Amino acid sequence: MVNNGTDSKSKEERDLASRIPPGQRVTEGFPVLHHGSVPYYNDMGKWNLRLFGLVEEEAVITYSEFLKLPKQEFGNDIHCVTTWSKLDNVWEGVAVATIMEKVKLKPEAKYVMLHAEHGWTTNLPIEDFLRETSFLAMRHNGELLTPEHGYPVRMVVPHLYFWKSAKWLRGIEFMAADKPGFWERNGYHMYGDPFAEQRYDFD
Ligand SMILES: Nc1nc2c(c(=O)[nH]1)N[C@H]1C(S)=C(S)[C@@H](COP(=O)(O)O)O[C@H]1N2
Ligand SMILES: [Mo]
Fold first, then answer.
1. Burial of 62 (0-12, 13-18, 19+ CB in 10 A)
2. In the CATH hierarchy, which top-level class contains the domain 47-196?
3. pLDDT in tens, 113-148
4. Separation of 108 CA from ligand 2 center, angstroms?
5. CA 135 to CA 129: how far, in whole Å?
6. From start to end of 43-83, where are the E strands?
């Protein structure tokens, strides 16, 4: 038999390798990365999540309403554009479909802008936001999100680089046309597929 270099690897090793996008290294830690400062909340009565833009009627979900929404378990592999990947994360949160029961989309809605605390934003196509695997997380690996990782609610979009997973999520805006968010205005790719290495787009 010709040795093609994979013979010595078990199926398990190959399956694992296929989950790691080109140019990524697996880390056991959970690095913290963001622009600006971590928001601290002392009055959750002031927190809400606003769904706005191309919807029939805007919706505002308060923290106590959000806590009552049905929660599900989700899994993902994190791929950060700065080349670290963290595999097998277990999250608890709210499915995007559950959130979308609060609004009726206008047919022109084709893109989403996620708005975080302090005006930070990130953009993605609406079908990527609506994907069954995308969710709004409250817990990571059994623990409540820490302030550094996005407490109380962060977006997680498993199939895109992790910068699309807005921490401290406060708003979901539905738009007709694509528009760059914070990092996208600063040279990051408009879409960010880790398997296609869509890291930066400086053209
Ligand atoms: N609100 C907000 N969310 C953000 C960011 C940010 O600067 N602000 N950075 C993004 C980037 S670049 C990455 S890699 C991940 C890091 O998440 P972590 O700190 O939980 O690892 O958050 C993303 N979400
Ligand atoms: Mo990042």
1. middle
2. alpha beta
3. 999 999 999 999 999 999 999 999 999 999 999 999
4. 30
5. 8
6. 48-53, 59-62, 72-79
